[in-house]
């Protein structure tokens, strides 16, 4: 009986430390040191939350840069990858369908289509595209908005982020931030 009481006390103490005190302390420190990141890296426009730098959003219409495909239909409560094998018939069909859709939307799209335009990311919510994938959409957007291709390419260059610390990752463009800058041009 004595061992049971000790075990219950230890469980309650560990529950309070690990389940309450530690999470509150780390959240408090994060709010002080990294407030924007702790709040979800939210982007605000005119005081209103437009989205997060960390989550892809769906942009419809020929006048917008389109995000990478989402395995969870851009629903942040259902974050998921496709888990489809590259050689599976479903995956091949979905990729071919996406290629056909892109070619239909982007008449000037050549035969070298950037992979991130037709595949989903591991999380299903990658907010970034490669600069090549964004540039492939320029003719469609220029035609739909009347903004010159040169201005759009300049906009992409201004929104391209390089490798982290100069060595990690690949150059990338956050589609939400790019579209917010595009909206300012119109």
TrEMBL record:
It is found in: Cell membrane. Keywords: ATP-binding, Cell membrane, Ion transport, Membrane, Nucleotide-binding, Potassium, Potassium transport, Transmembrane, Transmembrane helix, Transport. It comes from the Bacteria. InterPro entries: KdpC. It holds the Pfam family KdpC. The system is composed of three essential subunits: KdpA, KdpB and KdpC. One of its GO terms (cellular component) is plasma membrane. GO terms for molecular function: ATP binding; P-type potassium transmembrane transporter activity. Belongs to the KdpC family. This is Potassium-transporting ATPase KdpC subunit. Part of the high-affinity ATP-driven potassium transport (or Kdp) system, which catalyzes the hydrolysis of ATP coupled with the electrogenic transport of potassium into the cytoplasm. This subunit acts as a catalytic chaperone that increases the ATP-binding affinity of the ATP-hydrolyzing subunit KdpB by the formation of a transient KdpB/KdpC/ATP ternary complex. It is a single-pass membrane protein.
């Amino acid at each position: 009986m004595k061992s049971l009481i000790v075990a219950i006390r230890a469980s309650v103490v560990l529950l309070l430390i690990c389940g309450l005190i530690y999470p509150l302390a780390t959240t408090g420190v994060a709010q002080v040191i990294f407030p924007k990141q702790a709040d979800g890296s939210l982007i605000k426009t005119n005081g209103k939350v437009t989205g997060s730098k960390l989550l892809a959003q769906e942009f419809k219409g020929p006048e917008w840069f389109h995000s990478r495909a989402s395995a969870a239909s851009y629903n942040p409560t259902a974050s998921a990858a496709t888990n489809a094998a590259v050689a599976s018939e479903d995956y091949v069909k979905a990729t071919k369908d996406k290629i056909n859709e892109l070619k239909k939307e982007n008449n000037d799209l050549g035969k070298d289509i950037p992979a991130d335009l037709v595949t989903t990311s591991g999380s299903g919510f990658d907010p970034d595209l490669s600069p090549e994938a964004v540039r492939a959409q320029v003719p469609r957007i220029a035609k739909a908005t009347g903004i010159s291709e040169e201005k759009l390419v300049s906009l992409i260059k201004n929104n391209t982020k390089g490798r982290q610390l100069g060595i990690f990752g690949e150059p990338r463009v956050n589609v939400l931030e790019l579209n917010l800058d595009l909206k300012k041009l119109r």
